[in-house]
Design goal:
Layout lengths: L7 H5 L8 H23 L6 H23 L4 E4 L2 E5 L16 E5 L3 E4 L5 H8 L18 H12 L5 E4 L3 H9 L10 H4 L31 E7 L13 E2 L10 E4 L7 H4 L5 E3 L8 E2 L3 E4 L1
Parallel strand pairs: 3-7, 6-10
Antiparallel strand pairs: 1-4, 2-3, 4-11, 5-11, 6-8, 8-9
Helix pairs in contact: 3-4
Length: about 300
Amino acid sequence: MPANRPSRACRRDRPAREPRLPALRAVGAAAAAACIGIGAAFAGPQAEPPALAKERGALEARELARRGAAVLAQVEYVAVPAGEFPMGCSAGDSECGEDEKPAHRVAITKGFEIARHEVTQAVWQAVMGANPSTMKGPDRPVEQVSWNDVQEFLAALNGRRDGYHYRLPTEAEWEYAARAGSTGAFHGSLDAIAWYGINSGGQTHPVGQKQPNAWGLHDMHGNVWEWCQDWYQDDYYRTLGQPPAVDPRGPASGQQRVLRGGSWYKFLWFLRVSSRFGFRPSGRFPHVGFRCVRQKS
C-alpha cells in the first residue's frame, strides 16, 4: 500500500461534506419566518385599517337602525278624542287624598294619540341602545328610568323625524285616557285589570296581559307607575278657578314630577284612577316607567 494513501478506516473518519448553499438558505428562511410569526403573536392582532373600521361601523349602525325601526313600527297608539271629564276624587270614593280634591271638570280641546301599552324594554333598547331595567324581559315595561332619562328618550325618538312629535301626557290627559268615560275609581275588577301588590308576585309583567279599558289601553292601573309631564303640587286642583279647566298643564314650576297609576308592589289605594304622587325628576326606581303620547308634527 502506498505510504501516502490513507486506509479505509481513516477515510471513514473524515468529516461529512459541507451542505450545499441553497439548503442553508432554505433553513434560514424558515427560521426567519418562525421568528416573524412569534413576534406577531407577541405583538397581538394587527390594527384594523381606518377605512375598513369606518365601513364596518357604518354597517353596524345601519343594522341597529333597521332593527330599531322594526321594533318601533310595532308600537300601537290609540286615538283619544277631545272631550270633557270629571277629574279628581271619583264619586263615591271615600279613600281620596286631599291632593285629589276638589273634583272638577276638565276640557281636553285637542285629540291626541296615546300608546296602548307602557314603553317596553325592547322599545327603550331600540331607541337608546341599552336597557337599564332591573327585571329583564323585552315585553316587560322599562323601569329604572327617571323623568330626565325619559326626556332624553323622547328627544332621540323625535330625532327620527317620522312625522310625529312624541312627549309625555299631561296629568289631565293621563287621567282622561285612563278613565275612558268611566267615573269610578277603577274601570273594572282590580285583579282583572292590574298587576299590583297582591297578584304581581313582586315583579313587573309583560305589558298587555290584563284587560284594557274602554278605549283599549292596558295597564293604566298597576305594573309600573307612569311619569307625566307636569310638576306636582299637592294643592294644584284648588288653584284652577272656575270649571272647566281647559287643557291644564300643571304648575309652572316645582320640585317633583307627577306619577300616576300605581305599580306592581303597591296596593289598592295607590292604584285608584285619581290617586296622585310626585317624585324628583332624577329619581330611578324598579316600579316606575312611562308611556308616550304623540301628535302629528
